[in-house]
Amino acid sequence: MCGIVGYVGFRDCTDVLMDALSKLEYRGYDSAGIAVFENDEIKVAKSKGRLADLAEKMKKEGKPAGHSGIGHTRWATHGEPSDINSHPHSGERVTIVHNGIIENYKALKEFLVKEGCCFKSDTDTEVVAQLLDYYYDGDPIATISCVTKELEGSYALGVIFADFPDTVFAIRRESPLIVGIGDKESFIASDVTAILRYTKNYYLLEHDEIAVLSRYSTSIYDLHYHKLNKELKTADWDISAAEKGGYEHFMLKEIFEQPEAVKTTITPRITDGLPDLRECGITMEKLASFKNIFVVACGTAMHAGVVGRYVIEKLARIPVNVEIASEFRYREPIVSEGDLVIIISQSGETADSLAALRLAKSLGAETLAIVNAKGSSIAREADMLIYTHAGPEIAVASTKAYMVQIAVMYLFAFELALAKGMTDEAECRRLTGLLLKTPDIIQDVLKNKKETQYIASGLISADSLLYIGRGLDYALSMEGSLKLKEISYIHSESYAAGELKHGTISLISDGTPVIAVATQSNLFDKTISNIKEVKARGAKVILVCRDSYVPDKDVADYKFGLPDDIEDLLMPMAAVVPLQLIAYYTSVLRGNDVDKPRNLAKSVTVE
Ligand code: M6R
Fold first, then answer.
1. Residues 462-498: pLDDT tens digits?
2. How confident is the model at residue 317 (pLDDT cuts 50, 70, 90)?
3. Ligand 1 center to residue 298 CA distance, Å?
């Protein structure tokens, strides 16, 4: 959940670390800090709050000057956000930054206290710093190797030793870490976007590999000090992908990137008008063999799975269970050989989703990952892999990742239906053709962003609201509601419209805003009846429906129209856009930090 960086080279280290951290702030933003070798001495600057607070502090107190060091942006797990609990943490000779959680930190701390160590912070990270110090015998690699054997949990560590100036050491287990290679400079970072300004070349550090970055070379070793020859990878994103590019917020930029993201994700997976997922390890024979499907994910990614369930069950007639990963992993799920478990994740590092993937594999199921972040743990461990090509998603609130996740679910469902003999090639081609048209449709819907601004202006003082719909519209309501509460901090719930009268309708009183989604023709009349029920009880209804429908006064106060020429099945790809924009503008109008909502982090690597 935190972001770590490190640098060795010829540039001003503080500037590089601060710049790289600014690209990782989405991972956590309650405190930040750096440690830099200044004239062979380690200088630390750290502060509670955002990176901007640290910059401000350094403006007043002076910034460390040097050419090598480590940095951190934090999402607190152990110990409240404070100056003291901010990373880096130090022992006498060792200073570290850490992303992850040390599960056995209490036992290690007790041991160290008995040995006479004094602790300043409440963090699990300081225990690692002190332990490194305790065992340090002048050989950094041997010490790191020995200490990590004692650690339980997850970590990506950047480590500097006082007597090894201008050298940065790094190791990871579970938490992600890459090693960037530039011209006479090298980097470590939790995510490649942090270093794109300087280089696109990087190594993916595997579990228990130790990187040593010095002025003259960068090497990677295993725990036994064997030097490893690793494949140098090249990022296919450029720096503009990780910058706002004139938009006020990353979230808005990412919403507007959706048409392109869908195109880039879908087009290469279509051959002769039909879905073709062979490059992802998915063959028609394999698809035909699956008996049950489980989709396991968290948050927005799980909502993409709910859309997928409707589409797969409708077209391929295979039962699909959609599960929250944190529940799935602990409820002894009945999953076995012949089942397919699909894990959806933007980051590919979500702890619960990763654990669910491992559990599914251990139970004998085949696993398919739908992942955006290249080389992430989930991508690497699944049997089959479909990358979504959304580019980096920086805003904590997921938008374009959701869009491409559902686009992939459609493509997958079409091919599955064909493999199962539930549809023929002609129909599959027709559906695939419709999917290919969705980028233009999304583009059209985006043109109406002003309307969503207007809708948002009516929501900003609401205490609570409801999202309702049926079928695919209900699936979409779940996502609309999460988006709104996540960034506007207004309480909201999504409800199956037909279920309201079994309890929830009592929440409706005069002026309660209700966002109703009604795009599915077979359920349309039923949904309208449900909407009338809330309207009659005083709700202020915003209706998202096809353009051609003109609601009476007893149905809606405001209508957001979607193009008429979209097939019901594909409607979520258009209808989610106003829901994203309504959430976005509500957050903006309430003066919130849209891209970094309170208490959250983009990559949830703790369970
Ligand atoms: O990286 P992942 O897709 O696995 O993340 C899952 C959720 O944490 C994520 O979708 C979260 O719900 C978003 N912040 C929602 O906008």
1. 999 999 999 999 999 999 999 999 999 999 999 999 9
2. very high
3. 6
Catalytic residue ranges: 2, 602
Q: Is the CB of 367 under 6 A from ligand 1?
A: no
Give residue-wise pLDDT tens across range 529-560. 999 999 999 999 999 999 999 999 999 999 99
Angle 201-239-26 (CA atoms, 0-180°, nearest 5)?
100
Joined together, the tokens standing for residue 432 give 């695939």
Closest alpha carbon to 275 in 143, 434, 394:
434
The helix/strand/coil state of 316 is helix
Please report which helix (H) or strand (E) contains residue 333, including its range.
Answer: none
Distance 598 CA to ligand 1 centre (A): 15
Q: Which of 604, 605, 606 to mutate to test the pocket of ligand 1 (most atoms within 8 A of CB)?
A: 604
Beta strands at 540-546 and 558-562: parallel, antiparallel or unpaired:
parallel
- For the record, the structure tokens of 163 come out as 């007597």
CA distances in angstroms from 568 to 79, 310, 388, 545, listed in the order given: 49, 12, 23, 11
| Mutation choice for ligand 1 from 255, 346, 408, CB with most ligand atoms inside 8 A | 346
Beta bridge partners of 212: 169, 219
Residue 539's alpha-carbon distances to 451, 476, 492, in angstroms, are 20, 20, 14
Verify cis geometry, omega within 30 degrees of 0, for the bond prior to 88.
Answer: yes
Closest C-alpha residue for ligand 1 atom 8: 299
Distance 162 CA to ligand 1 centre (A): 39
Q: How far is 305 from 343, CA to CA, in rounded Å?
A: 9
Residues sharing a CB contact under 8 Å with residue 601, sequence separation 6 or more, in sequence order: 1, 2, 26, 27, 28, 29, 75, 396
Per-residue pLDDT, 492: 96
